[in-house]
Amino acid sequence: MTEPKETLRVTLVSKEESGRLWRLLQKYLCEFSMWEKTDVEEDGDFAYPYFSCYWQEEKRWPLLFWYEGHIAGFALINDYPESGIKTDYVMGEFFILPKYRQKGIGSQAAGQIFTRFSGSWQLKYHPHNRASVGFWERLAAQYAKDGVRCEEHLPEARYEDGTDGVVLFFTT
Question: pTM for the full model?
């Protein structure tokens, strides 16, 4: 894996830019449907009931990743725990467009997020999404101040397909 030559920019998405993020979210949800087995709605989009909340509620941060002047991905961060345990931040969604994968851009974006949003984190991933397993375990260990706790069987973290999500707990 090579390091990106240009600095990656992580920017907050305004309400006016939300349509752009919605289209990227649809690409992510389409890819994620491989593991979660979700279907599109009648309008052709995947459902995401909390999308508008990112501009209506506090403690929600919609972010875009820019690399060489192009959108490379996004993250949706909030403070709604994947477990019953209170936390400062939750990585609700994280997506790197296929063109930008395996280049260190995802790692750099996650690193900027963990640095910018310092505090306690919960991060859930689908265990069948093999690429995410090593990615998140490596990054959580890299940015955690006091180690990482991993929970594999939390009923609150179950995906719609019935698979138990893996939740990482750590503090940056």
Answer: 0.89
